[in-house]
Structure formats: C-alpha cells, structure tokens
Amino acid sequence: MNAQQTPSAVTLPRAESSPGGKRSRLSSSTAAKLALIPATIITVVCFYVFVGWTIVISMTKSRLLPVYNFVGFDQYRRLFANDRWWTAMENLAIHGTLFIVGCTVIGYVLAILLDRGTRCESLFRTVFMLPLSMSFIVTGAIWQWLLNPTLGIQDAVRDLGWTDFVFNWIVRPDRAIYTLAFAGVWQQVGLCMALFLAGLRGIDPNIWKATRVDGIPTWRVYANIITPMLRPVFFSVFVLLSALVLKSFDLVVALTGGGPGFASDLPARFVVDHILNRQELGLGAAGAFMMLCTIAAVVSPYIYYELRTSRKEA
User: Fold this and answer.
1) pLDDT digit string, tens, across residues 78-100
2) CA torsion through residues 188, 189, 192, 193, sign
3) Comparing C-alpha atoms, which of 244, 207, 286 is closest to residue 103?
4) Residue 186: pLDDT above 90?
5) Looking at 23-32, 169-178, 283-292, which range is the least confident one?
6) 63 with 280: CB under 8 angstroms?
C-alpha cells in the first residue's frame, strides 16, 4: 500500500426532494389555513351575518324588540320621507368632503416638509401625532370648549381688544357642520402625515439624483413623479378616512350633539338615536343598511379603478 496516498475528496450525496419535505411544506400551508379559521369565523359572524340580520330587520315592523312580521320596503319608504335623514345625508357629504380632502392635503404637505430634512423632525412628528392618541370624545370636548363663544377663541380674542370679533360657528345652524370637519382634521391629520411620510421615505433616492441632473424643479418632481408613485398610499388614506366619516358618532355627540336642532346631525347618530332612544329598530336598521350602501357606492368605483390599474401595470 502506498504510504503517500492522495486523499480523495469526499463526495456527499445530493440532497433529493423527499416526500417528507413535501409533507412538511404541506403541513405548514395547512397550519396557516387552520390559524386563519378563527379570524374568518369571527369576521363572517360579526360582519356578514349581522349585515344580513340588519337587512332582514329593516323589512319588518320591529320597534323596541325584533319581530319578524315582514312589511317589505315600508321602512325604507319611511326613511326616505324623513327630512331628518336627508339633512343627515347632506351633512355627511359636507363633512366627508372637508374631512377627507383636508386630512389628505394637509397630511401630504406636512409629510413633504418633514421629508425635506426639517430640523427637529422627531419633535414635529410627535406634535402632529399627539392628537391621534385621543379618542373622538376627548377631541369633541376640547373643541367644544375652544369654539364656545363665551369661553373659547371668541372670548380670548375679545379680551385682547378686538371686541367686535365673532366666531360662534358652533351655535349657528348654517356653520355647525364645519366645526366637525375642523375637529376631525385636527385629530386625523397626523395619521395621514405618517402614512405619506412612510411612502416618501420608500422612494428610490436615484430618482431625486436624476431629476437634479436634469434640472427639474422640486415642485414639479412632487407633482408629476412622486405623487403618482404614491397612488397606493392615497388609496389607503381614502379608504381609512371614508370609514371614519361614515361611522362618525362620538365626535358629533361630544362636540355639537347634532345641533343646533339637527343642523350637524349625521347618519350614524340618526341610526343610534332611532334604535336606542325612539324604539324604531326597523327604521334604524334601514338607515344602517343605507349607510353601508352609501360607503359601497363611494369606495367601490375607486377600488375597481385601483385593481384595474394594478392589473394593467402587472
């Protein structure tokens, strides 16, 4: 036997896919599906089942308690003949437009300013995000005090010497609905700012380098390049704010109570008031279903447009 023998390389057997590996992957997929079952059941029961139950109740004569003597669309006829309902829907359109546009525009502008490298960025982020930590009840109470003609902004300005200054929107039927938009924007603009800032920080820095080389003005870069790239962020902001507008109840109760009269009433307060206070369960259920139809009519075309655009880009 040769004493100096070159050691041969040890050849390891090639790893082959085994049925066990497939079973492992299959079991992982099955485990993920099983983990989703409780959440799926809760979603189906708490949303779809109760939506169906609401539709059924809206077609009955239910008042204090549910009764199943069907009357067809009588409750919807009563609803559409109710002047308070149409006032609430008109207020919803005003409040929703001002709230969504205000939060989106101001939040985007603040995000751009912070993205430009503002000093003390963490301080500004904290200041703008702080109102978000409050509930709508607290926000309504704060703004009710600020807008009170005898205690808030009007009284403070008059104490400074401007005795003719008037800012009594909260007690004016033609202006009360705008105070809801002020308070809502003040609370939610920080959320929009954070979402837009996250989107801006995800933009490829090479885009900015290329635009500087080409000498494109900064405002034009944001308008023609950056803003279209943030379309998914705008979509998320729109959906979130639309949901907040539709279910606005606690802010109305805390700030204006729906008044003066029903000048700042919203559909959510109309539904809750008729179900809990007026013992009109059937009419309230009809209003709740019409609220769902309203948000579907507003959001569905935007969702369809986004999905169609995404498929074309893919």
Assistant:
1) 999 999 999 999 999 999 999 99
2) negative
3) 244
4) yes
5) 23-32
6) yes
For residues 146-174, give the mean pLDDT: 88
CA distance 111 to 103: 12
DSSP assignment letter at 263: T
Task: Show the domains of the chain with their CATH numbers.
Answer: 84-313 (1.10.3720.10)
Higher pLDDT, 194 or 6: 194
Distance CA 147, CA 143 (A): 6
Given a contact cutoff of 8 angstroms between Cβ atoms, the answer to whether 141 and 275 are in contact is no
Say how far apart CA 135 and CA 251 lie, in whole Å: 9
Which structure tokens are listed for 293? 């139809």
Alpha carbon distance, N-terminus to C-terminus of the chain: 67
Query: Cis omega before residue 260 (within 30°)?
Result: yes
Q: Tell me which H or E stretch contains 8.
A: none
Please give the model's pTM, rounded to 2 decimal places.
0.81
Which residues does residue 70 pair with via DSSP β-bridges, in sequence order? Answer: 60
**Are residues 92 and 230 in contact, defined by beta-carbon separation less than 8 angstroms?**
no
Angle between helices 83-115 and 121-129 (to 10 degrees): 170
| 74, 227 contact by CB (below 8 A) | no
The predicted-structure confidence for 50-89, as pLDDT tens digits, reads as follows 889 999 999 998 888 888 888 889 999 999 999 999 999 9
